Amino acid sequence: MEGLDKLRNARIEKLNSLKSAGVNPYPYRFEAAHTIAEAIEAGRAVGAEPAPEEWSIAGRIMAIRGHGSASFGHVEDSTGRIQFYIRKDAVGDEQYGVFKLMEVGDIAGMSGRMFRTKTNELTVRIADMRILSKALRPLPEKWPGLPDKEIRYRQRHVDLIMNPQVREVFRTRSRLIETIRRFLLARKFIEVETPILQPLYGGAAARPFTTHHNALDMTLYLRIADELYLKRLLVGGYERIFEFAKDFRNEGIDRCFRPSRENSPPPAR
């Protein structure tokens, strides 16, 4: 923990340096005209000479390799990752000084023309770069990454940053749900939404989560099944219906959740 505190303090010092230089490390907005995936697709035909079109992208800095007055790095958004190249003589001393205060984990906006390096890697030659969000906590080391399953489950956001395959699971789930929805809608099904809070629970043999509605002064239950309300809709005349429902059953714990010690109730005395 002491090492992490030192890293965080060092980042706070750089944050203060940015503020002292008159740079807002958390600006209100930045117009990113393109996603990284769009830039990569457009750059397939780019050669060693920079393409004439300028691209504007934004994302999280995932790597920086400094070489004095010039630096390479990688920036990543939700659609992909691309290399960038920044030179002091291209952006000026002031902007390059701001870049030197940026680190892996920071979110940046940048614009420039694309070219390919000697190793044939598609790269954005930066003409303008701005910090959009200064990260105060370091990311895990690229190697070995984030192998601890307990940390991955407790800090899902860090897991998503460090493991592209996990992000792909989320995308796959979204595409799957969308495919099912299109399939059913094409066959004249109607998507519905049934109550989550119910005065009487039923439809399955499970214990419910119980809560209290203050305004109505009554006990309500998180649904353990959406079955009964769907059947009411059938009785009401809707013959083809579907719902992507979340049900809540107050029993058992799966491997994705374990109460943390900080949030656990104190032991009985």
> For the record, what is the CATH homologous superfamily label of the largest domain?
Nucleic acid-binding proteins
Shape: elongated
Tell me the major beta sheet: 5 strands, mixed, barrel
User: Given this structure, which CATH class of the largest domain is correct?
Assistant: Mainly Beta
Return the average pLDDT rounded to an integer: 88
CATH architecture of the largest domain: Beta Barrel
Return residue spans where pLDDT drops below 50 for at least 5 consecutive residues.
265-269
Strand order, sheet with most strands: 1-2-3-5-4
Q: Find the CATH topology of the largest domain.
A: OB fold (Dihydrolipoamide Acetyltransferase, E2P)
Q: What is the C-alpha radius of gyration, as a whole number of Å?
A: 26 Å
Order of helices and strands: HHEEEHHEEHHHEEEEHE
Total number of β-strand segments?
10
Work out the count of structural domains.
2
First-residue to last-residue Cα separation: 32 Å
Decide which structural class fits the backbone.
alpha+beta
List the total number of helices: 8
Approximately what portion of the residues adopt beta-strand conformation?
Answer: 15-25%
